[in-house]
Specification:
With 249 residues, the protein is of the alpha/beta class. It has a single domain (2-242), classed as 4-Layer Sandwich (Purple Acid Phosphatase, chain A, domain 2), CATH 3.60.21. It is 23% helix and 25% strand. It has helices spanning 16-31, 48-59, 75-81, 125-133, 153-156, 163-172, and strands spanning 2-6, 35-39, 65-68, 97-101, 104-108, 119-120, 139-142, 160-161, 179-182, 189-193, 196-200, 225-232, 235-242. α1 packs parallel to α2 (48-59). The longest helix is centred in the N-terminal third of the chain and has 16 residues, at 16-31. 42% of the residues are buried. The structure holds fe (ii) ion. Fe (ii) ion binds at residues 41, 70-72, 144, 184.
Length: 249
C-alpha cells in the first residue's frame, strides 16, 4: 500500500510552486500511488484561480485524492473549486475525511480555526473518537499542523493547540494510528506524540529556514519535497522525495 502525501503548495500568481506541483504530480502519475493526501495550505491569499489550477493538476492523477485545509487556505474557495477532485468535501463544517484503502484506514482531521492562524484539535476529538471506533485496520492520521512544538518559533505561534488532549484521546482507543502525518512546517521533521510517531511533510513551495534555538538564519539549501508512505503488514516506512527546482523555473 503506497500513500503519497504532498503539502504546503502555497500557489501564488508567480506560479513557481505550481510548476513544482506539476513536476511532483508528473512523477506520481508514473509512480502510481494507491492514494494521495494533501495536508493543507494549497493556495495563498484566497486566489480562486490558484485553486482551479491545483484542482486541474490533482485531477490528472489516477488515484483517490484526500484533502485537508491549512491555516492559509480559504475553505469556501477550496470547497467550490476542488469538489471535482474530492466530492466528499462537506458543504459546511470541518473538512475531515475517513477513507478505507485496501486494508488501511486514512483519517484526516481538519484543525483549522475560522479567522485564526493557529489550529485546534480539541473541538474535533469527538469526531475522531467516533471515526476510530470501528476501525479494525492499521490507520494513518493526517492533520495540517503537527500537534506539538516544532521548535521554530514563528511556526509554533500558529501551531495546533491541545496536542496533549489528542494524545489522551488516542490512548483511549483500542489501537493507535501508525503515525500522525502533518504539513505546515515546510520541512520534513520527525518526532513523537507519546509513543506515536509524528512526521511533517516537506513543502512544494520553498522550504523554511531551520531557525532553532537562536541559531543563525542560514540560507535554505533544501529542495521542496513530499512523502511516500509504504504500509505493509502493519509496518510503516516513509520516504522523502525531493523535487529540486528546475533550471527553467
Ligand atoms: Fe500552515
Amino acid at each position: 500500500m503506497l500513500v503519497a502525501q504532498i503539502s504546503d503548495i502555497h500557489v501564488r500568481p508567480d506560479l513557481s510552486s505550481l510548476q513544482t506541483l506539476e513536476r511532483a504530480i508528473g512523477w506520481l502519475r508514473t509512480f502510481r500511488p494507491d492514494a494521495l493526501v494533501v495536508t493543507g495550505d494549497l493556495v495563498d491569499d484566497g486566489w480562486r484561480h490558484g485553486y482551479r489550477l491545483v484542482a486541474e493538476s490533482l485531477r490528472s492523477l489516477d488515484c483517490p485524492v484526500h484533502l485537508l485545509p491549512g491555516n492559509g487556505d480559504d475553505l469556501q474557495l477550496m470547497r467550490s473549486e476542488l469538489a471535482a477532485v474530492a466530492p466528499w468535501i462537506s458543504a459546511t463544517g470541518p473538512m475531515h475525511f475517513r477513507a478505507a484503502v485496501d486494508g488501511l484506514t486514512l483519517l484526516g482531521v481538519d484543525v483549522t480555526v475560522a479567522d485564526e492562524s493557529y489550529g485546534d484539535v480539541l473541538p474535533h476529538l469527538p469526531w475522531l473518537i467516533s471515526a476510530l471506533a470501528d476501525v479494525t485496520t492499521p490507520a494513518l492520521l493526517f492533520m495540517h499542523q503537527p500537534p506539538f512544538r516544532i521548535g521554530i518559533e514563528v511556526l509554533d505561534q500558529v501551531g495546533c493547540r491541545n496536542g496533549t488532549a489528542l494524545l489522551s484521546t488516542l490512548e483511549t482507543t483500542h489501537s493507535l494510528p501508525l503515525a500522525i502525518l502533518c504539513g505546515h512546517v515546510h520541512r520534513p521533521a520527525f518526532g513523537r506524540l507519546g509513543t506515536i510517531p509524528v512526521q511533517t511533510c516537506g513543502s512544494l513551495c520553498p522550504p523554511n529556514p531551520l531557525l532553532l534555538e537562536g541559531r543563525a538564519d542560514l540560507p535554505v539549501i533544501d529542495a521542496p519535497s513530499f512523502l511516500v508512505h509504504e504500509v505493509s503488514d502493519g509496518r510503516l516506512v516513509s520516504h522523502v522525495v525531493s523535487v529540486p527546482v528546475s533550471r527553467g523555473a
